């Protein structure tokens, strides 16, 4: 393993668009796993814009990430819910829906759950 590695989400190794032009996921791959930056545009909702790609009833990814901008509401299958915004660090277990709150894009950096996210 090299002592120093540099990758940039501004030059991702892979980009995955969401349904309906509602955003995208940009990925870089490290030896330790994928790191992604997702941009969710106003109106984005997992159950509308990723569910057709994932083909599961709810998001089955386990996320660990940091909210750069915008706001997102997350509701677990059991009804637990939370809203996240800029500066928040979040972990989310599998089994949830989520959507953008407000009129600003929501940008999240995730280093756990995006490797297979929105992957056809």
TrEMBL record:
Annotated InterPro entries: RmlC-like_jellyroll, RmlC_Cupin_sf, UGlyAH_Cupin_dom
Stretch list, region Disordered: 1-23
Protein name listed in UniProt: Cupin domain-containing protein
Domain (S)-ureidoglycine aminohydrolase cupin, residue spans: 59-96
CDD domains: cupin_DUF861 (cd06990)
Pfam families: Cupin_3 (PF05899)
SUPFAM superfamilies, per database record: RmlC-like cupins
Superkingdom of origin organism: Bacteria
Biased composition (Basic and acidic residues): 7-17
């Amino acid at each position: 393993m090299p002592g120093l590695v540099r990758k940039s989400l501004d030059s991702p190794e892979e980009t995955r668009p969401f349904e309906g032009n509602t955003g995208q996921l940009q990925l870089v791959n490290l030896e330790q796993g994928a790191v992604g930056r997702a941009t969710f545009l106003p109106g984005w909702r997992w159950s509308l814009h990723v569910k057709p790609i994932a083909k599961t009833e709810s998001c089955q990814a386990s996320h660990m990430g940091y909210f750069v901008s915008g706001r997102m509401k997350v509701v677990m299958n059991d009804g637990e819910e939370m809203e996240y915004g800029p500066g928040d660090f979040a972990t989310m277990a599998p089994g949830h829906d989520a959507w953008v709150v407000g009129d600003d894009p929501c940008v999240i950096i995730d280093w756990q759950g995006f490797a297979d996210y929105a992957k056809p």
